[in-house]
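Field notebook, page 794. I keep forgetting to write these up properly, so this time I am using the form the group agreed on. The chain and the ligand, 26Q, are recorded exactly as supplied. Prediction of the bound pose follows.
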Amino acid sequence: MTHAPSAQDLREKILYHLTHTQGRGPEFATVFDWRLAVSFAVRDLMVGPWVDAIRAARDQGAKRVYYLSMEFLIGRILGDAIINLRLEPAMGEALTQLGLDEQEILDNEPDAALGNGGLGRLAACFMESLSSLRCPAFGYGIRYEHGLFRQSFENGQQVERPEDWLNQPHPWEFVRIDYSYRIGFKGHVETVDGRAVWQPGESVIARAYDTPVIGWGGDWANSLRLWGAHPTTLLDLPRFNAGDYTAAAEPEALARTLSRVLYPDDTTESGKELRLKQEYFLTSAALQDILRRFLAEHGDLDLLPQKVAIQLNDTHPAIAGPELIRLLMDDHGLPFARARDLARATLNYTNHTLLPEALERWSTWLMGRILPRHMQIIQMIDDDHRDTTNRPAHVGIVHNDQVHMGELAFIMSGKVNGVSALHTDLVRDTVFADLHKLHPGRIVNQTNGVTPRRWLRMSNPSLTRLLDDTIGTGWTSDLDQLKGLEAHADDAGFRDSLRAAKRANKIWLSNGLLADLGVKADPDAIFDVQIKRMHEYKRQLLNILEAIALWQRIHDDPNGNWAPRVKIFGGKAAPGYWLAKSVIHLINDVAATINSDPVTSKFLQIAYPSNYNVSMAEDLIPAADLSEQISTAGKEASGTGNMKFTMNGALTIGTLDGANVEIRELVGPENFFLFGLTADEAAAEKARHGHARAAIEASEDLKVALQLIAEGRFGRAESYYSLLDRTWNDDPFLVASDFDAYFATQRKVDRAFADTADWDRMAALNIARSGFFSSDRTIRGYMRDIWDTQAITA
Ligand code: 26Q
């Protein structure tokens, strides 16, 4: 960066934008006006590096990375930009001089929730790391008018309301009306002079909206390019004139709905027509844009794989294979085999889940109706793959009149990756075992990571101060430097400072919980946090059953030496996910009963703030003592929250699942609370007839907990009959089988927490050994093993 702006510079810029961009005098300005003025002042500082970065990549003919994702869960931008541009402490001073409350300004920004959970947040962390590493890249997504729904609780039950972050000016984006592409749907395929010509029956315009993503240090920014759908009104004027009014009005109706709302399901594939259209809309717009830029710079299509690397974030954009082949064949005249080879050398696919219900499949009927040309090409790809590999009959893309998007993505990719070591092994051994045998070496691992700028430097200033004072600031861009803390773990002075930093965060959170929920969270209690989407396999049920059993134990011995605990939950359920919703209801019912119980209230409190989102995570994670990562082994692909907690000095109670395995190895098994069946044991247990009932009968604590629910001690028993029935008779995620081990391990946590010196030592070692989980490391891995790209040196 040229030179860091002073508080004075910033104040002047803010006042300039308040007047000239917002059109307000300071005496009339609201918090909103000020926030926009501050955002524009900050944005001004990103634009120079952004334009320079784009120019540098073009001038050097650099290979670009394109990250295609239906979700980017970015959260708020302002605070992160201030950190990455290194505007602290000048910005703080400037705001104070203007008589403004920095926190209030930051909190005024809506949390951009253009994603459901882990996959979307990973995409946002990757964008930040790509910029911090100066790797030329674009993120491509959809500019949803409505992000993930807002959650509230009524009588303890989840209620969804639309989210409307775009109902106000969005100061970070630049609309590019000159970068617009036509996206077709439906219609039919004709053959003209031996070449296929797709005549779409309807179409929309994809318009680019760019947001700069500034990297650490503020000298490089890449673009997040989100597509908004607009009608092709003018283009269909002939139809209108011909009197076909309904058809002429169609584009407008379609366009209005296409980029209107994010699908709120994570992991349950919904098979809806609009979803398929959204996926194609993103993919086609991105590929047209990529080819336009490539052809302008290089001209020769043979160079495509040397200049372009495309990453598919799960199968959601997997139509990219057929679409790229279509563009190369139908628009550029390449023969199929050449188009196929170029596409495969350019595309890569990341798998994020093994759950069967999450694997995308589309009926050939729907695919053929919405994308008739693509259905033909999919069939060509499948036939070609069969003919060139002599694969077994059960392997392939099209089966039983369904298009299997995972197989399609695999076959059309140069590299396929899983997101943790265990997950990648399972990808190789289970869902893609056959394809792996046919294409050994194609599957690689890239364990997830998270950006330490947002998840440590920005969200945990008290710990950041301690880290900076102890080991310097280098960790921010080289997280392995946290290793330097190991030497201090046995230093009582350092441990006290670490404890003080954590305590400050707990007090801050405690005040918030009291104000929002009326829950009294004693900052000296264990802050035990489980925050993630509500899903059966994540086993929030196991956690709340443990709370009930503990509550009963405290009642049995009210004068016992119980370790005070505050259990904090956060997370949304997909609107149609009945079972997950009933767990939310149960947690709220249990909280209401337990929190007001005078016998136990000083030992156990439960807090479930509604509408968990990125901003809430930024408050909860720094204040956590204990991180709950308790999924049934083999089900959580990686997890990324688990990494954020570790970096922030929480200890983990967890199963050997996803990246927990690697966290435990790195921090040391003695600094991690492990429990539960392994993935292999879990698979065997599940196959055992009557496993649930047997486990419940064998566990007095669990039996009592279930009994209390059935007796109606927490709200109406009838609300929970299905949940209870499933737990007794089916329990597919082995809550009962793992219960006793979990309960016992929680009591180990109680004892460990009482030994503050030892606990703080373990916390220090968790932080010190968390460097591996920086998304910088992950992105370097993709650049080396998958994309074959280099950073642009300054
Ligand atoms: C698919 C079709 C139709 C509608 C929705 C979907 C859909 C949407 C989102 C399917 C899946 C998702 C999200 C999956 C996800 O977030 N997976 C998580 O990815 C993280 C990043 O790799 C991992 O850390 C988590 O373990 C994994 O659950």
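OBSERVATIONS:
- The chain is about 50% helix and 15% strand.
- The mean pLDDT is 96.
FOLLOW-UP: compare against the apo run.
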